[in-house]
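Help!! Second protein's tokens look totally different from the first
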Amino acid sequence: MAKWSLRQHWQAEGGGSELLRLAFPLILSTSVWTLQVTIDRVLLSWLSSDAVSAAMVASLIFWTPLSLLYNTAGYAATFVAQYVGAGRPHRVGPAVWQAIHFSMLAGLAFLALIPLGGPLLELGNQPSAVRGLADVYFRCLCFSALPTMVTAAVSGFFAGRGDSWTVLLLSAAGMVVNAVLDYAWIFGRWGFPEWGIAGAGWATVTGMSVSALLGLGLMLRASHRAEFRTLAGWRPERELFRRLMRYGLPSGLQWMIDGLAFTAFMLLVGWLGAAELAATSIAFTINMVAFLPMLGMGQAVCVLVGQRLGEDRPDLAERTTWSGMGLAWLYMTAVALLYLAAPGAFLFFFQNDREPDQWPRVAELVPVLLRFVAVYSLLDSINLVLSFALRGAGDTRFVTLVALTLSWPIMVLPTVAAWYFGWGLYAAWTFASAYIMMQALVFLVRFRQGKWKSMRVIEAVPVADAPGEQPLSTGRFPPAARQTGTSSGHVPAPGLMDGTG
């Protein structure tokens, strides 16, 4: 009987089968992106240990501000999911276009950060060779900001509707272009000049541009233009843009705060020594290869939570979240066992025979660091799923508050103490692990409280006031309006809709 109940749960709405159908292409998509980053790092490690360290440090500095903008643009997926769930497809196109407008402006403004790369790298007290390479890589990456954000916004159109296979197509197209150009431009193959780390940077710019252009082309197909107003909805809408900023900016801010904390952590590890920095870079890369696919699971949970809340079915949103947590936990348990049982297998791809003096120390440190990863990754899977579920509801301010209040007191400032008092690399990693575990605990408490069930990011309007929509069969209001008890046709007070009331 228990076996039959488990099968029923798996196949029911909100169960693992429904979630996995949406999540699988998103998992492959994030795996493709992980493969792209890994190819970059592996090829650069063939160049030198300094190059892979420089790429890690430059990427962290680049992604710290970009994560704010990227995740703000990508939050369009939550608006799309809730509009689809509420039966209001004509609002999908305008919501995505607000994110595209934001991406264009923010991408151009991002270029102003290019002169700041050098001074920021000076703060890390890195070896001069690493600083020089990192500055070159950072300058290249800044030009990829605009197409990266446009890709995030356009991907939100497909992911929010449940069309996760198209998201995979966009990622795969960019990865193939990036990988081919990586090899050609880093080492000067097929008649191209040898650009070294700059080649890896410009390959990233080109790959992201291909993804952005392909995504825009697919979004503007005739069928999408007719149903979702993907062309007619291009005009800026002040109120809709304001709502995207109201919920998207806190979501992006959480990623930026988290990225800033880990960037500071990496810079501080650089103070401990070149081998410690290289080992940390490799351990984070190995962890990223295994963990980033779970971002696809988190994205799927976010989309389904948004759709279920748009339908006014918070019970199914909760069931979906628990299903996602179970699947993520099983996956990360298997990965953690691999970290403990075969750490040398992961090191094989990063081995560098050009630096015989430094590599043995790096190879000694990485297996120990992977033990830390094995421990915290189990709770990090909970952290990932629950934070995405809260974002799908619109509880983005709380998610940001968690990162703001925990990251520096638990991880960054204690790592400064580890450097100052000579506690060493393992003490620093203990603090980083504690931060990740504490996040998971706080998110679990917040989710269990259930406040997120009453939150929505879309506006509540009577069906009759929504131009271009067909009335619901019941003749009642959209689910978001019904949930707040507004039966008279009036829009509820903002606090009832955004969770602040």
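Here's the second one for comparison:
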Amino acid sequence: MKPRGILPARLFSDPSPSHPDEVFTAQVDGASRGNPGPAAYAVIIRRPDGSVVYQLGKYLGNATNNVAEYFALITALDYCAEHNISRLRVRSDSELLVRQLQGRYKVKSASLKPLHERALRQSKSFGYFAIEHVPRELNAEADALANAALDRTGEVRSASGNSKSPSAAATVTGARTIRAQFRGGVLHPAEPLDLPEDSCVEITISRKT
């Protein structure tokens, strides 16, 4: 008989899917040089047979590593939703991302809360969804893809390990749509704006559900 108050060791473990051969797998990763600093994220999605159906390495702009990790996850979820993939297992070497999605860690960062809410909402639309933490060496492909995206921006790293983002990367041209949450009288963007200091922008409000 188990002593009272002791939780089962596998309380938070993901249940095995009834048809494991039908589950797609997504490797996600984020990278930031400076934290916050120039950031990028990567996604690799594999079919149940292990073949790659989608991969992406994308420069994000100035952001923290955790924000980049969430962008990778949301990109994977978006792709699967758009391509009618309803059974997904996500693997990430970010303990924070995984534990927050599993409900083990609280989300305290204001910049992560809207991203977490979106990812959690999307994950619930799947017929089967699991997210698991893996060692960094088992996520090396996604890590390399994210860092390659950073390298393509022309970022220069000094011998001391410091980095500088190219000025072109901080230049924002044209109009773009940004989702934001209104809280406490302030708009909180769901993604990094990457705008130069003291920039003036025009905001058009369109309420989303």
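Reply: Different proteins will give different token patterns, so don't panic. The first helix runs from residue 65 to 82.
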